[in-house]
Amino acid sequence: MSHQDAINHLRNRREAVHAGGGEARIKAQHEKGKLTARERIEEFVDPGSFVEHQTYIRGRSEEFGLANKRNPGDGVVTGSAKVGGRQIWLSVQDFTVLGGSLGEMHARRIADAQEMAMKTGSPFIAINDSGGARIQEGILSLEGYGDIFRNNTLASGVIPQISVILGPCAGGAVYSPAITDFVCMVSGVSNMYITGPDVIRAVTGEEISHEDLGGADAHCSKSGVAHFNFTDEQSGFAFLRKLLGYLPSNNRELPPIAESEDPADRSTAPLLEIVPEEEKRAYDMTAVVTEVLDRDSFLEVHAQFARNIVVGFGKLAGRTVGVIANQPMHLAAVLDIDASDKAARFVRFCDAFNVPILSFVDVPGFLPGVGQEHGGIIRHGAKLLFAIAEATVPKIALIIRKAYGGAFISMSSKALGYDRVLALPIAQIAVMGAEGAANVIFRRDIKASDDPEQTRKDKVNEFKETVMDPFIAAGFGYVDDIVNPAECRAEVIRSLEIVSRKRVDRPYKKHGNIPL
Q: How many CB atoms lie within 10 A of CB 28?
């Protein structure tokens, strides 16, 4: 073969690979409102930065009766690229080729990209759009999933892993996204479920649509499986580019520091208007968070799920922080099973990737009730306690209003390793609220009084002054400073600077046994 013939052959093979499943299938993909695999890569990464890996992989098509099927790349595109100038690795399933089904070489290609991401210390992004396991390949498909799951597990806490669901993701395929750090979905496009509506109808008799069973809204607001819900693919990719800018490439690096035009000493006097003086009035904690953080820097995570707690990333003087914040607008900000899981998972991600934790506290306790107790609130609440105590990154707490009982411990206790605990002058710190405490401690005095109601009010005020006042906790060293609301931003930034070089030595162990 001459040089020119070889070059022509190479050109033809490249064109065949880039054509995916052919014009008809690409048209069908577009008619569903979906981009093709290569269009998704172009939309997501820096222009001209994508370098394909193992471009010409093909499955053993003749052996499995697929010889007449068009299968370039075996239904997946993998490679390395840059996002915001930083290296990533990614796999993008191609639904136009064999329905994006996962077979032996398809899985091997994804697994190899995962391994390259770990070797190079780069984030790994998996874009899922697949009909599931390739039935013709049987055990080879199942073992392929096993390879991917194992690599997901090995990479956990080593490199950030993000899954983007842009089509069907069913059966065993759902477990890879579930192991990764963040799962993104698009309304009306994404579906995830172990078994689809037809199987459910046959087994249980329940009728449900694909969207109601495993769509973006279901998983972002009900199951908590997914973290982000987008209206279209383009907005999802734009958000992911921004999110990656907050994260380090791997666990041996610190998060990138951005230039901030927001003055570190900017007054946060608006907190006086945001936080009501009446202790039982609700307010939006996200308004407090955004007032303290650098302007327009807060990226909320899991916004639709367990809304009684807020988690997300932000910047303080250009430095990335992970925020956990009680939300009085929902369930009076109590911690329940879902909120505990949500916060614990987020804290462990931050700790794995050197992201300091900033806690905004206004919590009356853990949610009481038979359903919560029988659902395992003890076990789930312990996850949050475990995650906070285990975390070695800088941990700062700002007590806004209430901090009661075990919820105080999980959100702001120095005993659990919070390095700096700050409180507003209106903060209340105690085992329980004043009214409940007074009814227990002073019940005899109240009962014996000529005016029980007035006596009860007097005892409530007495308890607030002698037990709950933040200066009492500060007197014992459990609160480091009481801060003026107008100076919250400046004080939190100073605290972050103070503890930014924190180092913690822990006893040797293989790993802890978190109460799952």
A: 14
- Given a cut of 90, whether residue 469 has pLDDT beyond it is yes
The confidence score (pLDDT) of residue 51 equals: 96
Give the residue range(s) of CATH 3.90.226.10 domains in the chain: 3-244, 271-427+479-499
- Taking Cα atoms as reference points, which of 147, 152, 150 lies closest to residue 163? 152
Distances (CA, A) of 270 to 15, 275, 277, 292: 59, 9, 13, 10
**Residue tagged active-site, from 157, 172, 376, 417:** 172
Question: In which band, very low, low, confident or very high, does the pLDDT at 470 lie, cut at 50, 70 and 90?
Answer: very high
Return the pLDDT at 61: 59
Kindly list the distances between the CA atom of residue 243 and the CA atoms of 14, 279, 300, 475, in Å, as whole numbers in the listed order.
33, 35, 10, 40
Among 407, 427, 438, 474, which one carries the catalytic annotation?
Answer: 407
Burial of residue 455, with CB atoms counted within 10 A of its CB: 0-12 exposed, 13-18 middle, 19 or more buried? middle
Residue of 20, 131, 406, 433 marked catalytic: 406
The distance of Cα 467 from the centroid of its chain, to the nearest Å, equals 37
Using alpha carbons, select from 231, 376, 223, 386 the residue that is nearest to residue 302: 223
Residue 348: the pLDDT is: 98
Could you tell me which of 305, 270, 265 has the C-alpha nearest to residue 291?
270
Mean pLDDT, rounded, for 141-145: 92
Q: Is 131 a catalytic residue?
A: no
271-427+479-499 belongs to which CATH class?
alpha beta
Structure tokens at 58: 């093909």
312-316, 366-370, 503-507: least confidently modelled range = 503-507
Between 68-77, 273-282, 357-366, 453-462, the lowest mean confidence (pLDDT) is in 68-77
Place of tokens 């906790």: 473
pLDDT in tens, 149-182: 999 999 999 999 999 999 999 888 999 999 999 9
Q: Catalytic residue among 171, 214, 215, 314, which?
A: 171
Contact by Cβ (8 Å): 194, 173:
no
Query: Is 407 a residue of the active site?
Result: yes
Q: Give me 121's structure tokens.
A: 């210390």
Question: Per-residue confidence at 67, pLDDT binned at 50, 70, 90?
Answer: low
The answer to whether 477 is a known catalytic residue is no
CATH class for the domain made up of 3-244: alpha beta
Q: Are 430 and 404 in contact (CB under 8 A)?
A: yes
